[in-house]
Amino acid sequence: AQSVTQLGSHVSVSEGALVLLRCNYSSSVPPYLFWYVQYPNQGLQLLLKYTTGATLVKGINGFEAEFKKSETSFHLTKPSAHMSDAAEYFCAVSETGGYNKLIFGAGTRLAVHP
Amino acid sequence: GAVVSQHPSRVICKSGTSVKIECRSLDFQATTMFWYRQFPKKSLMLMATSNEGSKATYEQGVEKDKFLINHASLTLSTLTVTSAHPEDSSFYICSAPSTSGIKNIQYFGAGTRLSVL
């Protein structure tokens, strides 16, 4: 069975500081990995995804994530936080191929302060 | 990009009534859609997989008679919360996977906040 662990339910950074949101996964098959962002009372928006190929993937809003198979990790980073980045972030995993269901981590709430 | 529309965005109902939530793929066809439930400050829990023209597949622990799913067309899936009670109050989100362009992507609706009094 697949699972996702997000370390830190709350992360607080200063505006302009590095953002690092941690995600570790468990999967018996090569995974597809995703990061989604959710603003209050809204659905989820895809930030980036890893399927195959380059292990460093770039997404929207300056975010990127690196797939590290040896560490079973897919941490999300952004060099410089902006106030508008404050939101809930979810890491998710699905099985390779097809349109399989997503398994989500518990989420990390990012706060950005001036 | 593909758009998934979810309606209503918010609903308040009395205990014992039934509530229907619609999920539409606006510019693509979706033979499969997913329904999630999100508790306050919690992650999304997959409730069921909606399959066009056939029965939905429910996750373990989800009452199929409580949460009725109908996927009558390639662009519409509905979730009906039957005889709603306060414990059913939650944020319900649907998603549909991309069928063209960028594959392996799910597009999410904006969610429906259900409050049962």
What does the secondary structure layout of this molecule look like, with pairings?
The complex is a heterodimer of chains A (114) and B (117).
Chain A: E1 3-5, E2 10-14, E3 19-21, E4 24-26, E5 31-38, E6 44-50, E7 56-58, E8 64-68, E9 73-78, E10 87-95, E11 103-104, E12 108-113
Parallel strand pairs in A: 2-12
Antiparallel strand pairs in A: 1-4, 3-9, 5-6, 5-10, 7-8, 8-9, 10-11, 10-12
Chain B: E1 4-7, E2 10-13, E3 19-25, E4 32-38, E5 44-51, E6 57-58, E7 67-73, E8 76-81, E9 90-97, E10 106-108, E11 112-116
Characterise the protein shown here.
The complex is a heterodimer of chains A (114) and B (117). Chain A has no helices and 12 strands. Chain A is an all-beta fold and 114 residues long. In chain A, β10 and β11 form a beta hairpin. Chain A is globular. Chain B is mainly β. In chain B, the strands form 2 sheets. In chain B, strands 2, 4, 5, 6, 9, 10 and 11 form a 7-stranded mixed sheet that branches. Chains A and B meet through β6 and β11 of A and β5, β9 and β10 of B.
Mean pLDDT metric of chain A: 91
| SSE ordering of chain A | EEEEEEEEEEEE
User: Describe the biggest sheet of chain B?
Assistant: 7 strands, mixed
Average pLDDT score of chain B? 90
Q: Quaternary state, please?
A: heterodimer
Provide the β-strand percentage band of chain A: over 45%
Order of helices and strands of chain B: EEEEEEEEEEE
> Based on CA inertia axes, which overall geometry of chain A fits?
globular
Principal-axis shape of chain B equals: globular
State the distance separating the first and last CA atoms of chain B: 37 Å
Q: How many strands of chain A?
A: 12
Number of β-strand runs of chain B? 11
